[in-house]
Write a structure and sequence with these properties.
CATH class of the largest domain: Mainly Beta
Mean pLDDT: 89
Number of helices: 2
Radius of gyration: 23 Å
Number of domains: 2
CATH architecture of the largest domain: Sandwich
CATH superfamily of the largest domain: Galactose-binding domain-like
Strand content: 35-45%
Distance between the termini: 95 Å
Length: 373
Protein backbone atom coordinates (compact mmCIF):
# COMPACT_ATOMS: atom_id res chain seq x y z
CA UNK A 1 0.00 0.00 0.00
CA UNK A 2 2.76 2.41 0.96
CA UNK A 3 4.59 1.58 -2.27
CA UNK A 4 1.51 2.43 -4.35
CA UNK A 5 1.11 5.75 -2.56
CA UNK A 6 4.78 6.57 -3.14
CA UNK A 7 4.54 5.74 -6.86
CA UNK A 8 1.40 7.86 -7.16
CA UNK A 9 3.16 10.79 -5.49
CA UNK A 10 6.12 10.51 -7.87
CA UNK A 11 3.84 10.40 -10.93
CA UNK A 12 1.88 13.44 -9.66
CA UNK A 13 5.14 15.35 -9.26
CA UNK A 14 6.07 14.49 -12.86
CA UNK A 15 2.69 15.77 -14.05
CA UNK A 16 3.06 19.04 -12.16
CA UNK A 17 6.58 19.52 -13.50
CA UNK A 18 5.35 19.02 -17.05
CA UNK A 19 2.64 21.62 -16.60
CA UNK A 20 4.95 24.21 -15.08
CA UNK A 21 6.96 26.48 -17.34
CA UNK A 22 10.70 25.93 -17.36
CA UNK A 23 13.09 28.82 -16.76
CA UNK A 24 14.76 29.10 -20.13
CA UNK A 25 18.44 29.34 -21.00
CA UNK A 26 20.20 28.87 -24.33
CA UNK A 27 20.81 25.20 -24.94
CA UNK A 28 18.91 21.96 -24.53
CA UNK A 29 15.30 22.27 -23.40
CA UNK A 30 14.43 20.38 -20.20
CA UNK A 31 14.55 16.71 -21.20
CA UNK A 32 15.04 17.94 -24.76
CA UNK A 33 16.91 14.73 -25.59
CA UNK A 34 14.23 12.47 -24.00
CA UNK A 35 16.79 10.64 -21.89
CA UNK A 36 14.47 10.98 -18.87
CA UNK A 37 12.16 8.05 -19.57
CA UNK A 38 8.45 7.63 -18.85
CA UNK A 39 7.59 5.31 -15.94
CA UNK A 40 7.30 1.73 -17.17
CA UNK A 41 3.72 1.71 -15.93
CA UNK A 42 2.98 4.41 -18.53
CA UNK A 43 4.33 2.39 -21.49
CA UNK A 44 2.40 -0.16 -23.53
CA UNK A 45 5.21 -1.61 -25.59
CA UNK A 46 6.68 1.52 -27.15
CA UNK A 47 3.49 3.57 -26.91
CA UNK A 48 3.38 6.26 -24.22
CA UNK A 49 0.00 6.09 -22.47
CA UNK A 50 0.02 8.98 -20.00
CA UNK A 51 -0.44 12.57 -21.15
CA UNK A 52 2.35 13.75 -18.83
CA UNK A 53 4.36 10.51 -18.75
CA UNK A 54 7.44 11.95 -20.51
CA UNK A 55 9.06 14.30 -17.97
CA UNK A 56 8.75 18.01 -18.90
CA UNK A 57 6.53 17.21 -21.92
CA UNK A 58 2.82 16.90 -22.59
CA UNK A 59 1.71 14.52 -25.34
CA UNK A 60 -1.44 13.94 -27.35
CA UNK A 61 -2.31 11.05 -29.63
CA UNK A 62 -0.17 8.07 -30.67
CA UNK A 63 3.32 8.83 -29.33
CA UNK A 64 6.07 6.22 -29.06
CA UNK A 65 9.23 6.14 -26.95
CA UNK A 66 11.92 4.66 -29.19
CA UNK A 67 15.21 3.16 -28.02
CA UNK A 68 18.44 3.28 -30.03
CA UNK A 69 18.82 0.26 -32.32
CA UNK A 70 15.15 -0.64 -32.18
CA UNK A 71 13.77 -2.24 -35.35
CA UNK A 72 10.54 -1.84 -37.24
CA UNK A 73 10.39 -4.88 -39.49
CA UNK A 74 13.71 -4.88 -41.32
CA UNK A 75 14.24 -1.15 -40.74
CA UNK A 76 16.59 -0.03 -37.98
CA UNK A 77 15.39 3.05 -36.09
CA UNK A 78 18.46 5.16 -35.29
CA UNK A 79 18.76 7.76 -32.52
CA UNK A 80 21.05 10.74 -33.23
CA UNK A 81 22.31 11.22 -29.66
CA UNK A 82 21.89 9.29 -26.44
CA UNK A 83 19.63 6.26 -26.11
CA UNK A 84 16.08 7.49 -26.80
CA UNK A 85 13.91 9.50 -29.18
CA UNK A 86 10.17 10.01 -29.70
CA UNK A 87 7.98 9.10 -32.66
CA UNK A 88 4.79 10.99 -33.51
CA UNK A 89 1.94 9.06 -35.12
CA UNK A 90 -0.76 10.64 -37.27
CA UNK A 91 -2.16 13.80 -35.65
CA UNK A 92 0.01 13.21 -32.57
CA UNK A 93 1.75 16.09 -30.86
CA UNK A 94 4.21 16.86 -28.10
CA UNK A 95 4.57 20.17 -26.32
CA UNK A 96 6.44 21.98 -23.58
CA UNK A 97 5.71 25.18 -21.68
CA UNK A 98 8.71 27.50 -21.46
CA UNK A 99 9.33 30.85 -19.77
CA UNK A 100 10.66 33.55 -22.10
CA UNK A 101 11.15 37.29 -22.34
CA UNK A 102 8.09 38.84 -23.93
CA UNK A 103 8.91 40.51 -27.25
CA UNK A 104 12.26 38.73 -27.65
CA UNK A 105 13.04 36.47 -30.62
CA UNK A 106 14.10 32.86 -30.28
CA UNK A 107 15.07 29.96 -32.50
CA UNK A 108 14.36 26.31 -31.83
CA UNK A 109 16.69 23.62 -33.16
CA UNK A 110 15.62 19.98 -33.22
CA UNK A 111 16.48 16.78 -35.06
CA UNK A 112 14.02 14.74 -37.10
CA UNK A 113 14.07 11.62 -39.27
CA UNK A 114 11.32 10.19 -41.41
CA UNK A 115 10.57 6.47 -41.19
CA UNK A 116 8.30 4.62 -43.65
CA UNK A 117 6.23 7.57 -44.88
CA UNK A 118 7.66 9.53 -47.81
CA UNK A 119 6.15 13.02 -47.69
CA UNK A 120 6.34 13.70 -43.98
CA UNK A 121 5.87 17.15 -42.48
CA UNK A 122 5.95 18.64 -39.01
CA UNK A 123 3.83 21.53 -37.82
CA UNK A 124 5.65 23.69 -35.26
CA UNK A 125 3.73 26.27 -33.24
CA UNK A 126 4.22 28.95 -30.65
CA UNK A 127 0.90 30.78 -30.80
CA UNK A 128 0.05 32.80 -32.78
CA UNK A 129 2.88 31.67 -35.11
CA UNK A 130 2.73 28.28 -36.81
CA UNK A 131 4.57 26.76 -39.78
CA UNK A 132 4.74 23.48 -41.65
CA UNK A 133 8.32 22.22 -42.02
CA UNK A 134 8.88 19.79 -44.92
CA UNK A 135 11.15 16.92 -43.83
CA UNK A 136 10.83 14.56 -46.81
CA UNK A 137 14.23 15.51 -48.29
CA UNK A 138 17.08 13.83 -46.39
CA UNK A 139 20.39 15.74 -46.35
CA UNK A 140 22.50 13.31 -44.28
CA UNK A 141 23.62 9.71 -44.69
CA UNK A 142 22.39 8.92 -41.17
CA UNK A 143 18.80 9.86 -42.04
CA UNK A 144 18.69 12.49 -39.30
CA UNK A 145 18.62 16.21 -40.04
CA UNK A 146 18.56 19.14 -37.63
CA UNK A 147 15.96 21.84 -38.35
CA UNK A 148 15.56 25.38 -37.06
CA UNK A 149 12.50 27.54 -36.58
CA UNK A 150 12.18 31.04 -35.11
CA UNK A 151 9.42 33.04 -33.44
CA UNK A 152 8.70 36.13 -31.36
CA UNK A 153 7.54 35.51 -27.80
CA UNK A 154 4.16 37.22 -27.37
CA UNK A 155 3.97 36.31 -23.69
CA UNK A 156 6.21 35.49 -20.74
CA UNK A 157 5.13 31.84 -20.89
CA UNK A 158 4.51 30.05 -24.19
CA UNK A 159 3.64 26.53 -25.32
CA UNK A 160 5.98 25.12 -27.95
CA UNK A 161 4.14 22.41 -29.92
CA UNK A 162 5.34 19.90 -32.52
CA UNK A 163 2.51 18.16 -34.36
CA UNK A 164 2.49 15.48 -37.05
CA UNK A 165 -0.36 16.43 -39.44
CA UNK A 166 -0.25 12.86 -40.79
CA UNK A 167 0.39 11.51 -44.29
CA UNK A 168 0.21 7.77 -43.61
CA UNK A 169 -2.59 5.51 -42.41
CA UNK A 170 -0.07 3.60 -40.28
CA UNK A 171 0.61 5.56 -37.05
CA UNK A 172 3.94 3.72 -36.71
CA UNK A 173 5.18 5.47 -39.88
CA UNK A 174 5.40 8.88 -38.26
CA UNK A 175 8.63 10.88 -37.95
CA UNK A 176 11.18 10.42 -35.18
CA UNK A 177 12.17 13.57 -33.26
CA UNK A 178 14.95 14.27 -30.76
CA UNK A 179 17.33 16.93 -29.41
CA UNK A 180 15.35 20.12 -28.80
CA UNK A 181 17.34 23.27 -27.99
CA UNK A 182 16.55 26.98 -27.87
CA UNK A 183 18.61 30.09 -28.54
CA UNK A 184 17.91 33.78 -27.98
CA UNK A 185 18.34 35.79 -31.18
CA UNK A 186 19.66 39.33 -30.63
CA UNK A 187 18.39 42.02 -33.03
CA UNK A 188 20.60 42.08 -36.14
CA UNK A 189 22.31 45.39 -36.87
CA UNK A 190 23.85 47.08 -39.87
CA UNK A 191 26.85 49.39 -39.76
CA UNK A 192 28.46 52.10 -41.85
CA UNK A 193 30.84 49.43 -43.17
CA UNK A 194 28.05 47.04 -44.13
CA UNK A 195 24.45 47.95 -44.96
CA UNK A 196 23.50 44.27 -44.76
CA UNK A 197 22.62 42.82 -41.39
CA UNK A 198 24.14 39.52 -40.28
CA UNK A 199 26.31 39.52 -43.38
CA UNK A 200 28.81 37.17 -41.74
CA UNK A 201 26.01 34.79 -40.61
CA UNK A 202 27.35 34.74 -37.06
CA UNK A 203 23.82 35.23 -35.74
CA UNK A 204 21.81 32.07 -36.23
CA UNK A 205 20.19 29.01 -34.66
CA UNK A 206 21.69 26.73 -32.04
CA UNK A 207 24.08 24.07 -33.41
CA UNK A 208 24.64 20.93 -31.33
CA UNK A 209 28.29 20.18 -30.61
CA UNK A 210 27.91 16.47 -31.32
CA UNK A 211 25.94 16.74 -34.58
CA UNK A 212 28.34 17.27 -37.49
CA UNK A 213 25.69 17.84 -40.15
CA UNK A 214 24.75 21.48 -39.45
CA UNK A 215 21.26 22.91 -39.10
CA UNK A 216 18.69 23.31 -41.88
CA UNK A 217 16.90 26.63 -42.28
CA UNK A 218 13.64 25.74 -44.04
CA UNK A 219 11.64 27.88 -46.48
CA UNK A 220 9.51 30.58 -44.89
CA UNK A 221 6.85 33.14 -45.71
CA UNK A 222 7.94 36.76 -45.96
CA UNK A 223 6.23 37.65 -42.69
CA UNK A 224 7.93 34.86 -40.72
CA UNK A 225 10.82 35.56 -38.38
CA UNK A 226 13.93 33.83 -39.71
CA UNK A 227 16.45 31.84 -37.62
CA UNK A 228 19.05 33.67 -39.76
CA UNK A 229 17.32 37.03 -39.49
CA UNK A 230 17.04 39.10 -41.55
CA UNK A 231 18.04 36.53 -44.20
CA UNK A 232 15.08 34.57 -45.60
CA UNK A 233 14.88 31.27 -47.48
CA UNK A 234 12.66 31.18 -50.56
CA UNK A 235 11.62 27.74 -51.79
CA UNK A 236 8.63 25.43 -51.90
CA UNK A 237 10.07 22.46 -49.97
CA UNK A 238 13.88 22.79 -49.84
CA UNK A 239 16.23 24.33 -47.28
CA UNK A 240 19.66 25.87 -46.86
CA UNK A 241 22.13 24.55 -44.31
CA UNK A 242 23.73 26.56 -41.50
CA UNK A 243 27.23 25.20 -40.82
CA UNK A 244 29.86 25.85 -38.16
CA UNK A 245 33.67 25.98 -38.07
CA UNK A 246 34.14 23.03 -35.66
CA UNK A 247 32.65 20.65 -38.24
CA UNK A 248 33.17 22.49 -41.56
CA UNK A 249 35.54 24.87 -43.33
CA UNK A 250 33.98 28.33 -43.37
CA UNK A 251 35.49 31.30 -45.25
CA UNK A 252 35.18 33.79 -42.38
CA UNK A 253 34.38 33.63 -38.66
CA UNK A 254 32.59 30.67 -37.12
CA UNK A 255 29.44 30.26 -39.27
CA UNK A 256 28.42 30.17 -42.94
CA UNK A 257 25.52 29.04 -45.15
CA UNK A 258 25.71 26.03 -47.48
CA UNK A 259 23.37 26.21 -50.48
CA UNK A 260 22.41 22.53 -50.58
CA UNK A 261 19.35 22.60 -52.85
CA UNK A 262 20.56 23.98 -56.17
CA UNK A 263 18.27 26.36 -58.05
CA UNK A 264 15.25 25.33 -55.97
CA UNK A 265 16.27 27.59 -53.08
CA UNK A 266 17.29 31.23 -52.77
CA UNK A 267 18.85 33.02 -49.81
CA UNK A 268 17.61 36.62 -49.76
CA UNK A 269 17.74 39.84 -47.74
CA UNK A 270 16.05 43.18 -48.37
CA UNK A 271 18.16 46.25 -47.57
CA UNK A 272 17.36 49.97 -47.57
CA UNK A 273 19.03 51.84 -50.46
CA UNK A 274 18.83 55.29 -52.06
CA UNK A 275 17.70 55.36 -55.71
CA UNK A 276 20.43 56.61 -58.04
CA UNK A 277 23.31 55.86 -55.69
CA UNK A 278 26.05 53.34 -56.59
CA UNK A 279 26.66 50.27 -54.42
CA UNK A 280 29.06 47.37 -54.26
CA UNK A 281 28.16 43.88 -53.04
CA UNK A 282 31.00 41.52 -52.11
CA UNK A 283 30.89 37.94 -50.82
CA UNK A 284 32.86 34.71 -50.45
CA UNK A 285 31.87 31.49 -52.23
CA UNK A 286 33.57 28.15 -51.71
CA UNK A 287 33.12 24.69 -50.24
CA UNK A 288 32.65 23.54 -46.66
CA UNK A 289 35.40 20.93 -46.62
CA UNK A 290 32.79 18.20 -46.19
CA UNK A 291 33.62 16.06 -49.21
CA UNK A 292 31.35 17.98 -51.58
CA UNK A 293 33.50 18.00 -54.72
CA UNK A 294 32.88 19.18 -58.27
CA UNK A 295 31.96 22.29 -60.22
CA UNK A 296 30.00 24.84 -58.20
CA UNK A 297 28.51 28.16 -59.22
CA UNK A 298 26.95 30.83 -57.01
CA UNK A 299 24.72 33.35 -58.76
CA UNK A 300 24.23 36.63 -56.90
CA UNK A 301 21.68 39.36 -57.68
CA UNK A 302 21.43 42.90 -56.35
CA UNK A 303 19.18 45.50 -57.94
CA UNK A 304 19.59 45.10 -61.70
CA UNK A 305 23.08 43.66 -61.32
CA UNK A 306 24.10 40.02 -61.22
CA UNK A 307 27.27 37.92 -61.23
CA UNK A 308 28.13 34.25 -61.49
CA UNK A 309 31.04 33.03 -59.39
CA UNK A 310 32.36 29.59 -60.42
CA UNK A 311 34.33 27.47 -57.99
CA UNK A 312 35.93 24.09 -58.63
CA UNK A 313 35.68 22.25 -55.34
CA UNK A 314 37.97 19.46 -54.17
CA UNK A 315 35.75 18.96 -51.14
CA UNK A 316 38.53 20.04 -48.79
CA UNK A 317 37.66 23.69 -48.18
CA UNK A 318 38.61 26.96 -49.83
CA UNK A 319 36.84 29.95 -51.32
CA UNK A 320 36.96 32.80 -53.81
CA UNK A 321 35.53 36.32 -53.76
CA UNK A 322 32.73 37.66 -55.93
CA UNK A 323 31.44 41.22 -56.40
CA UNK A 324 28.65 43.23 -58.06
CA UNK A 325 28.58 46.97 -58.67
CA UNK A 326 25.13 48.38 -59.31
CA UNK A 327 23.03 51.53 -59.04
CA UNK A 328 19.98 51.32 -56.80
CA UNK A 329 16.64 51.85 -58.55
CA UNK A 330 14.39 51.71 -55.47
CA UNK A 331 14.26 52.52 -51.77
CA UNK A 332 14.78 48.83 -51.07
CA UNK A 333 17.09 46.40 -52.85
CA UNK A 334 16.86 42.64 -52.63
CA UNK A 335 20.15 40.71 -52.36
CA UNK A 336 19.83 37.12 -53.61
CA UNK A 337 22.14 34.09 -53.63
CA UNK A 338 21.39 30.89 -55.57
CA UNK A 339 23.44 27.78 -56.32
CA UNK A 340 23.24 27.13 -60.06
CA UNK A 341 24.18 23.44 -59.83
CA UNK A 342 23.06 20.34 -57.96
CA UNK A 343 25.92 18.78 -56.04
CA UNK A 344 26.07 15.49 -54.18
CA UNK A 345 28.53 13.79 -51.88
CA UNK A 346 29.77 10.30 -52.77
CA UNK A 347 27.11 8.68 -50.52
CA UNK A 348 24.36 10.48 -52.46
CA UNK A 349 23.36 13.28 -50.06
CA UNK A 350 22.79 16.82 -51.28
CA UNK A 351 25.48 19.46 -50.75
CA UNK A 352 26.61 22.70 -52.35
CA UNK A 353 28.70 25.87 -52.18
CA UNK A 354 29.03 27.91 -49.02
CA UNK A 355 28.34 31.66 -48.94
CA UNK A 356 29.89 33.87 -46.28
CA UNK A 357 31.32 37.31 -45.43
CA UNK A 358 28.72 39.27 -47.43
CA UNK A 359 28.98 43.07 -47.45
CA UNK A 360 27.11 45.89 -49.15
CA UNK A 361 28.45 49.45 -49.19
CA UNK A 362 27.51 52.67 -50.93
CA UNK A 363 30.44 53.69 -53.17
CA UNK A 364 29.31 57.32 -53.70
CA UNK A 365 31.74 58.64 -51.07
CA UNK A 366 34.61 56.72 -52.63
CA UNK A 367 33.81 58.18 -56.07
CA UNK A 368 33.67 61.70 -54.66
CA UNK A 369 37.03 61.21 -52.95
CA UNK A 370 38.64 60.11 -56.23
CA UNK A 371 37.29 63.27 -57.98
CA UNK A 372 38.77 65.51 -55.28
CA UNK A 373 42.16 63.88 -55.72
Amino acid sequence: MAGNVRRAAVFLAVCLAARAASAIQDGLLPNGNFEQAPPKSQLHGTRVMGRYAIPHWEISGFVEYIGSGQKQGDMLLPVPEGAYAVRLGNEASIQQRIALTRGAHYSITFSAARTCAQAEQLNVTVAPESDILPIQTVYTSSGWDSYSWAFEATGSVVSFIVHNPGVSEDPACGPLIDLFAIKTLPPPKSSKNNLLKNGDFEGGPYIFRNTPWGVLVPPMDEDDYSPLSPWMVQSSTKSVKYVDAPHHVVPHGARAVELVSGMETALVQDVVTVPGRPYRLEFSAGDAGNGCAGAMTVQAYAGRGSVRVPYQSQGKGGHTRGAIEFTAVANQTRVVFVSMAYNMKPEGTLCGPVVDDVSLVCTRKHAARRLLL
